[in-house]
Amino acid sequence: MQKIDAHLHVNLAGVDADQLIDYMDRHDVDKCWLLTWEELDAPISNLYQNLSPEEVFRVHDQYPDRIVPFYAPDPKTKNLEGTIKKHREKGLRGCGELKVTHKWEERIIGNYLRVIDKYDLPLLFHMEEPRMHYVPDKPDVIQQVLDKLMNGALNGITKHYLTKFSEKTSILKDHIEDHLTYFPGYLYDFANLEKRLRQFPGVDFIGHGPHFWNNISDNPPEILFHDKGDIDRFGIIDRLLTSYPNFYCDISGRSGFNALSRDREKTKLFLEKHHCKILFGTDNTGFDFEGLVRSFQLPDDKLNNIFFDNADRLVTG
Ligand SMILES: [Zn+2]
Fold first, then answer.
1. Ligand 1 centre distance from Cα of residue 283 (Å)
2. How far is the CA of 62 from the centre of ligand 1 (A)?
3. Looking at domain 4-129+185-316, does it have CATH number 3.20.20.140?
4. What's the pLDDT tens digit per position in 236-260?
5. CB under 5 Å of ion ligand 1: residues
6. H/E/C letters for each residue in the chain?
7. Could you tell me the residue ranges of all domains in the chain?
8. What's the CA-to-centroid distance between 164 and ligand 1, angstroms?
9. What spacing in Å lies between the alpha carbon of 232 and ligand 1's midpoint?
10. Confidence class for position 154, pLDDT limits 50, 70, 90
């Protein structure tokens, strides 16, 4: 069975171009979508890592048959259309990963969608909710420890208890409050996303990220960063995948792996139902996504859609 990994980066998590190709060879991955990350004024600089289009095209030039080049310029880019046009002429096949602190409702995102619609590019994007983020200002041990505990250790549980505990200890409370910065979230407003799906039927939208995947269930978590436990009822992503022919998802990242591992019965239903809308991808995690998907023993035609056909169709039209 042919395979496309629809969510990979170069120079992320220590993976350079050679290691990327080596990973693809070892896992019989024929092609990958290679994605950028560009945010011009990231509000919290230590949450951001620039992954440039130059690097994507450099690897593409080396391995033109294996690499499908994607680039999502920051929506604030001056002459966005000129930038897209120039890269389209160089062989750009998609827009992604769009991981920016904007909301779907903003006018700048409307303009962005008009441009990629004109150049016939699918859009792969990341959804994450706003939160308070602990930002260390000195490299001391205590701040390093707090950085871990406050920003995701044990899936958000340590942040919850540490914040509660700090309310009783004023030094810690003051310190934490002084170091918390508001993180405005990435493209997290589902209601306005739905309006954009209707407004741009010619754009194929591919969602992923913690907020996207937490909404596989209809009651997303308050404390946990990645939700756990059984899925009683499917959430909004099930409805959007059902209702909109231009809406897709990629299963990559810890968020996708977690969402598809928490309730095997419901996951099997989800894969059976949306096999024409789901794209295999890993996002440099090294998690065994292939083993996970295969463990549900879907028929070959459905597996073929998830592992290859859906991604192939989206970039070949
Ligand atoms: Zn990614």
1. 5
2. 22
3. yes
4. 999 999 999 999 999 999 999 999 9
5. 97, 283
6. CCCEEEEECCCECCECHHHHHHHHHHCCCCEEEECCECCCCCCCHHHCCCECHHHHHHHHHHCCCCEEEECCCCCCCCCHHHHHHHHHHCCCCEEEEECCCCCCCCHHHHHHHHHHHHCCCCEEEECECCEEEECCCCCCHHHHHHHHHHCCHHHHHHHHHHHHHHCCCHHHHHHHHHHEEEECCECCCHHHHHHHHHHCCCCCEEEECHHHHHCCECCCCCCCCCCCCCCCCECHHHHHHHHCCCEEEECCHHHHHHHHHCCHHHHHHHHHHCCCCEECCCCCCCCCHHHHHHCCCCCHHHHHHHHHHHHHHHHHC
7. 4-129+185-316, 132-182
8. 32
9. 28
10. low
User: Cα of 97 to ligand 1 centre, how many Å?
Assistant: 6
Residue 285 Cα to ligand 1 midpoint, Å, equals 10
Ligand 1 centroid – CA 230 distance (Å): 26
CB atoms within 10 A of CB 74: 20
> How confident is the model at residue 317, as a pLDDT?
65
**Distance in Å, CA 147 to ligand 1 centroid:** 22
How confident is the model over 200-217, as pLDDT tens digits?
A: 999 999 999 999 999 999
pLDDT at 180: 79
Q: How far is the CA of 282 from the centre of ligand 1 (A)?
A: 8
Report the separation in Å between the CA atom of 64 and the middle of ligand 1, taken as the mean of its atom positions: 21
